[in-house]
Structures are given as structure tokens and as C-alpha cells.
């Protein structure tokens, strides 16, 4: 059985709301999966023959619907950068698919023409859902979704991945996280988003909402890899995006507290990447953390260096070895934030630099303390 996964975000729930189950299905994503199936883009799904026959019987006559044509057009035009699955989670369930209230807008729609195309797809999806009776189909097949969810969760082998991340970091992440399982929909490389994104530069005051992470899982038993493999090891989907909730603000706060230019600490090459959208330092750190979480959960890491990028491999190995120090002495290092100066020293060491030691970090009770602002009163979803 193979899992292919993608990470993305939606608006957070209020603190008093009951936590969602870690793994679940979602009618918005399954609706998009039906349209994707009718477009012919993923003929290998669904791999469950009974469910395939049910989907074909219920929706086969709707292949000529505008929603299918618009999905096909978006998919061809955007290729691996199609983020419609992410954007749809900023809407209510079908058939209404109304925009959720709140300040957080769907990503990838800064271009007015792109926003207009998304609105056209939304209108077509509403019409498709109403005319095809999608909601009744989804309700009638809950057992199929529950079965796929249970199998996917069993393959992942971690009942509460977010709890494992928080335990490893040693700080509450002030977030909720769940993994949405679909036997139909396969997202693209635009597969990751947190709402609101925990960047102290763009979000100096974390504001009213909890950070929220949702992981899409396309489940395909016995069919091999499905779609474009975004995470090279599917287990990385358990850890990757929740880790960014800590790593992004922590590195920003670390650099600010340390002072000095990026180049004098990271070296010219890594500093240039750190200041760009690629941000090698951040991504290598998340990869190393994912490998160590794998080791804790399964006895061996799966997100190991693979020889394709020697520079990345060297930093990842060094970061992983430093994290083993952290794991062996949690009495000394109760949180990853307190260990961060020791961990980040890998970068100047690998660059052959000897910068001044980073100061001891200020105490933090949660990830919110890493922001220059402080948390405002929460509002419900």
C-alpha cells in the first residue's frame, strides 16, 4: 500500500472546540476528486473497484459539465502548481461552497485573473454538486471513506502525529492539525499551507486564529506511487508542515536575537538561500527533524540523504547528529528552542566560520512567545 500526501492549511478553530480526529475525510476534497476523476487526469484512481463503479455510476454522465472542463484547463495550465485543493478548503462544504468568514484568504490568488478563474471553478462546482446529487452520494459512502481513512492511518502507523511533533519540540504549537484522506483526489506540488502562516515578518502579531495544518492523503492500495511524489518519503507528510509552525518563527527569532548579518553566520552560499524563498537552512532543518521523528516513531529514519544533493546531505547529516545530542539529554534541553543555538551552530561550523556564540534564548512557554507580538483573543471559526 502506498500513500502520497500533500500539506495545506485552513482557518483554525477556537480553543474551546473539540479537537478534530487526526485522520478524516472531507466532502470538499472528495468533490474535487470526482471532478478530477471525470477529467481523466488520474485513471489509476480510485483503486477500489467497488468505489470506482459507484463513482462512475453516479457521475459518469457529468463528464461534459463545465466544472470538469475548468478543472482540466486549470490542471494543464498550472501543472504542478495547481493549488485548487488548498483554496477549496477556505470554503464551506458543498453544495454551497461559500467563502468562510475571517481575515484569511485562499493563497495563490494574488493575480486578479487567477482569482477570477477560481471563482469560475467555484461556481461550476456548486452547480455540479447540486445537479449531480453529490452530497447524497458522499453521505451514502461514508463507510468507504472511513475504511480508506483507517487503512491510511494504519499505514502511517502514528495515531497522533501532531502530538509527537509537540512532544519532540517541547513546546505547545498553538495549532490544530489533521490529515484528510481521499481515495480519489491527488493534489499537485502546491501542497503545503498553514493558516495563518507563522512568519513573524508578515504576521508580527499572531492574531486571533490558531495556526492550522491539514494534510491531504491520496490512498491507493496496491497501485504504487500516485501522482507527483512531493515528499520523497510519504512518512515525511506526518511531520513536515507541523514542524514549520515551530521552525519558521524560531529561526527568525534566533537570527534577530543573535544579531549580525546572515553571511557572517551561515556563510555566503547558505545565507543567500536563507534570505530567499528557497531558504535552504530552514528546509534542511525540517528535513533533519523529520528524519529524527521517523527514528523515534519507527526505529529508523526514512528521510535520509540520498546522494542527489551532496551539500544538502552534508548539512542534514550534521543536523541529525546534533539532534541526537538533544534527544539524549532532554533534562538539560527541555525544548528545541533552548537547544537551538547548539543546533544552529552546525551552519557556521560547516562553513568554516567562527562567529560569536549566540546568546541563550529567552524562555518560551509556547510557539507564540517566539513572535514579537502576542496572541489576541480568539474568535470561532
Taken together, the total number of domains comes to 2
**Integer average pLDDT:** 85
Tell me the span between the first and last alpha carbons.
Answer: 35 Å
Number of helices: 15
Q: How many beta strands in the DSSP annotation?
A: 5
Order of helices and strands: EEHHHHHHHHEEEHHHHHHH
Radius of gyration: 22 Å
Main beta-sheet annotation? 5 strands, mixed
Shape: elongated
The unreliable regions are 1-18, 222-233, 375-381
Which structural class best describes the helix and strand composition?
alpha/beta
Secondary-structure blueprint:
Layout: E1 2-8, E2 23-24, H1 27-39, H2 49-59, H3 66-78, H4 84-88, H5 112-132, H6 134-140, H7 142-156, H8 161-169, E3 175-182, E4 194-195, E5 211-220, H9 236-258, H10 262-266, H11 268-274, H12 280-298, H13 310-328, H14 336-344, H15 346-350
